[in-house]
Amino acid sequence: MRILLTLPELNSGGVESHVFDLACALRTKGHHVAVVSAGGRKVADLENKGVVHHQIDVKSKSLYKIIKAIRTMKRIIQNENIQVVHAHSRVPAWIGYNATRKTGVPFVTTAHSKYSIHLGSKSMVKGDLIIVVSQAVADHLHQGFNTSYERMVHIPPAIDIKTFEQGNRFRTETRKELGFREEEIVIGNVARLTEVKGHQYFLQAAAIIKDKLESEGQRNIYKFLIVGDGPEREVLEELARELDIMEKVIFTGDRKDIPELLAAMDIFVLSSLSEGLGLAAVEAMAARRPVVLTESGGLAEQITDGQEALLVPVAEPHVLASKIYQLSREYELMRALAENGYNFIKNNFSISKMVEETITVYQKLVIDLHD
């Protein structure tokens, strides 16, 4: 098949990793794959895998640039005899939808999260078929955009489990680089620094643990690691100072070495207020980290509390602090969660499974087009 994938850019993030893995796996299976994005540091790696990349501004919300991008994508579809266009974000979806309507090519979207209910997000339900990463996202699209469940196909995203397994080889040197002592318990979080990711509650939980230890006269060997960057960084750093925990928190900024950073952690926390799935927690489980996550999305729906992870209510820092503290003191529970979580991810989030199910969607649309 001849497939075009489109997303805003090819830097770090869950959507970027998903599209990169999908494109490379499709190419390995012998398909012609083109990716349209505004560029990024993963472009060279993508091209080295034999995937064609076209750099177009598919990030801008400027109407002029969107119209220009539609025309360019239309030419690419025609010149490369593209059979399916698959969009992974809102602006690229508007562009892809309009380009395919002008060329008669099937159009697919993947809804990776619970998008805001407004006109700009409606592009994500314009696909002839819509791939959703979780039932939570399917319900959101159904309720918010009156999208029929019949047009939606549930395909969980996938991760390269070996990459996260191998990160554990670098645990000692990564902890040393970050300044952690061997005996320190590192509680980590990986997410873009935006309000919806709930970092404020993560920091409040850190402060509650610190105050608890001080009131009981215990030695404080806890450190908190926040991996990622975004518009809330200054606000969160100021909050850490106000809570008097700045010496206990490390903000790494944007990093590429996520498997190694996960390996440096003892416990992973996903504190989000809302998630389509919770891919960062999936990656942490693949790295065999015990996980505490909020009841905020598709992953929380699929696991059993106390079996593959510990679940906590959204925006409840006292409960979050209690669960983190409990887990850090129960080695057998940590070990059991790590092993059960790893097995759950291995059985449900493999790249081969995701790719085969995605190809089935493409084939259905191409066959239906010619019937």
Mind explaining what this structure looks like?
It contains 15 helices and 13 strands. With 371 residues, the chain is α/β, with parallel strands linked by helices. The strands form two sheets. Strands 3-2-1-4-5-6-7 form a seven-stranded parallel beta sheet, sandwiched between helices. β6, α5 (135-145) and β7 (152-154) form a beta-alpha-beta unit. α3 packs across α4 and α8 packs across α13. The longest helix is centred in the C-terminal third of the chain and has 20 residues, at 351-370.
Residue-averaged pLDDT: 95
Number of helices: 15
The SSE order reads EHEHEHEHEEHEHHEHEHEHEHEHEHHH
Strand order across the biggest sheet?
A: 3-2-1-4-5-6-7
Tell me the Rg in angstroms: 21 Å
User: How many distinct beta strands?
Assistant: 13
Low-confidence stretches: none
The gross shape turns out to be: elongated
Helix content: 40-55%
Structural class: alpha/beta
Distance between the termini: 17 Å
Fraction of residues in β-strands: 15-25%
Largest sheet: 7 strands, parallel
In short:
By secondary structure, the protein is α/β, with parallel strands linked by helices.
